[in-house]
Amino acid sequence: MKKLLALIAVLGMLVFGATNMLMAQEETAAETTEMTADEIAPAAENAVSASSEEDVVESSSMHAAIKQKFIEGGAGFMAAVVLCLIFGLAIAIERVLYLNLSDTNVKKLVEGVEDALNNGGVEAAKEFCRNQRGPVASIFYQGLMRYDQGVDMVEKSVTSYGSVQMGLLEKGLTWISLFIAIAPMLGFLGTVIGMIQAFDQIQAAGDMSPALVAGGIKVALITTVGGLIVAIILQVFFNYCTSKIEGIVNNMEDASVSLLDILVKYNQKNA
Prior knowledge:
By secondary structure, the chain is mainly alpha-helical.
């Protein structure tokens, strides 16, 4: 964006300069010099290089500022907060990938099972489910495995295995919620300890110096900010995973009802 603005500014200056020169030629009929392409290119290159240098300086200064705040907040507490972020993000990313792979086209799956069941029987339907991914296909396969024991047994198997699949979907969410709770607590703990140290410095100095108090409070509040930022980031992932699980569970329930209906129709057809 900065490079684009710099190029636009250079082109605007060139156009404005060219317009002024043309007006001067018409009014005074004097000799004027025009800026050639060889002169424009170095000017644009200089502007782009200057913009690039500004981006590098800004990036390095931001990195230095974050590093400075990390040191000011206390290496121990800030490291604990960062570890909460790292572990929480690792689990959250794994859950996001798992849930997205588990989310399948249920309508297409149900139609495929019904077609396989009508054309090739129960074994063909089981083979179709075995080759599909996702918890819905696994539930269908477990239900079809109990088909010879009756539709009631299929229903019980689908319900029981649905609970198992739901537990697999929710795996790891407790750890994310733990890190969401721990990160602000570590920040508050660092803040309290920093405040205690600030008052100890005031007591040792024997004077209520505003600079001393402000410095101690600033350092103490850095850990709180870090903890809250970590909690906010992980909370977004947690809510996304929870919403995704709810959608998959609803699909599982709807698909289970559809499977039972398909089996009932299949029994009536073959009766």
